[in-house]
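User: Sequence in, structure out. Go.
Assistant: Echoing your sequence, followed by the structure tokens.
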Amino acid sequence: MRVLCLDGSDDLVVFHPDSLRDPPTLSYADRIDSLFVEWYQSSYIQLDGRAIPVCFWDRLYRKRDGNSSKAWGSFRGQWHNWKYIILEFEALGRSPAKFWTKYTKANGERMLYNDIIASLKAERKSRDNSVQVTTDAAHARMFFGGDLTREDAGHVFTYRKSGKVMACSRDVEVAKRWRSLLTNNDGIRARWEAFAAGNGIESHVSAEDSS
């Protein structure tokens, strides 16, 4: 048997590996607005009487604990492209209007799916290779007193691995979660700006994804 733990919930989905079929044939290339909904709530896959949202599909299909899924090998690229779009969607406050304002061309036409993906990957590569990553990660650690598991961090910098809560350690990961926190949490942003001003620190941080 396998167990899937859903984030933000004590519910465990218990299922037999043989009950997991291959990922459904699905495309969001012409219906990105549907992805904004189905990432968080969808019923394409049901296990143990529970609908499994698209956001958890990587946990179902990727290699883990000795379980090898050939389906994930061919599906992972598509799923990660969906995640690129969702991370941008979340950085823009989960607002379809703001997303399409950014990804609409001057002639009023929405950008094509592949063009959006290419743009997001280029932006991410540029950010990850910049000195700003190191600076932003340092600011996050400084603000939380070196403890990214603090309660007021809202679990933004933690993840589960083998049932244990772990704190992010890579600067790239800490920096992007810090940017997302400042973008989406007005209270933390106000506290950070006050903290930065009192310590002579430049407080500007650009919007970033939260994965």
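User: And one key feature?
Assistant: The longest strand covers residues 2-5.
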